Amino acid sequence: MNAPIKPGSKADRDALRQDMAVAGCTTADIAIEMRTRYRMRPREAWRHAHGWTLQETADRITQASSRRPGESVAADASLVGKWEKWPAPSSRRPSLAVLFAAAEAFGCRIADLLDLADRRSLPDADLRVISSQQQDAEQSPALAAPKPPVSTPEPTGSDLVHLAADESATWAQWAEASNVGDIAIEQLMAETRALAADYLISDPVALFVRTRALRDRVFSLVEGHQYPRQSADLYVVAGYLCGLLAWMSSDLGQLRDADTQGRTAWLCAELSGHNDLRAWVMSTRSKVAFWDGRLRDAVNFARRGSTYCSTGSVSVLLACQEADAWSELGAVSEALAAVGRAADARDTMVGGDEVGGIFACPPARQENYAAAVQLRVGQPAEALRAADSALTLLAVEPVRAYGTEAQIHISQAAAHLATGEAEGALEALAPVLSLPPDHRLAPVTRRLSELSSGMSRPYATGTAAIGLRAAIEEFCVDSAPRHLALSPGAGSA
Q: CA 458, CA 462: separation in Å to the nearest integer?
């Protein structure tokens, strides 16, 4: 024998909705019945009339709001529940942007989502907007008679004092409303961390599309209204996303666009006042400047980033980048001193990386930089030792970044060539040359091209060297930056 259905339970609501739908009732009819039978607030009744969970409703409100420029809402289940219960205690007043998006999601008018208690608690300005929208919907603009302006006398005495108080109360209600919740911001940061981690192992172009879409969501939220601390948090997320787009753009060979993303990331860092983000943006801009040949700028960005009191491994990476630029400039003592500062920064590092992934400098990445620096300052034996150490460290890391691993193998090959071991170079490069085209990023192709150019020296001749140069040339032609440059619309930025 089946247990009786408890009145007001989910099973009871589902049965009512199904029975009414079979009887030809509209969603509005079902919502009215839900309100009267279960004593629900109107917004809750409309949700149950559709049979949606709190999270499903949050997703639909967020999606609907994205179609209203400047009114984007990042809803979550907790926020929807608070909006439904308002104006009860421990609830939250839904803003006009929320009400417009909810009405679109539910397929109703804003007026259908409000009852007398809502209207008594809403600011007069909001009620006027809602009333105007309702009149526009009910009356054709062509038939609407123009209304003569109504002149009202300026309040005086106690009426003036009461009006000023009402105005302040209305503003306070606006000020306490927010288009984003703390849980939603936490989710945005979690998605940013996932993108930064995925970039180490994923195809860059597909990930670029995902990162751009998330950045646009965050930008839309920033253009809305939220508490100052929430605005600062959104700027942090936006800064990391623009930094990630800058890094990706650089790896795809689009250095001018990367620089633009870096400047926007810096603006977000300044607006948020977030030192870790400031340091990581300086690191990103140093990387872009290095591959753009602006080596002095690369040094200056790295040094500037190191002035911020930051946590995690960014100070290690900044010292590595400074060493990289100095070695390219031929400043041996400055380069080696910076390598030493990177080691000191590792020893004194406090805390973890806020985002991680590409915004982290694990030991293998640090040794990769050291190997490249040692090569440029004419110490191939030390470079080979650092490259071997980097590969050993990379093998025990939870994620093996294919870009870092490729550059380590290139340093190995260059060190072998410097000591006249062309066969050893060919063996070291085998994993690099087998990379799929989408993983052949600009830093890898650039370093391989430099390696190939150096093979015209006497120690790099013979059959192995000639075959290696041909393989490198073929590799660089079939690469991600090359494909992007030849894709439709690539020249119409």
A: 9
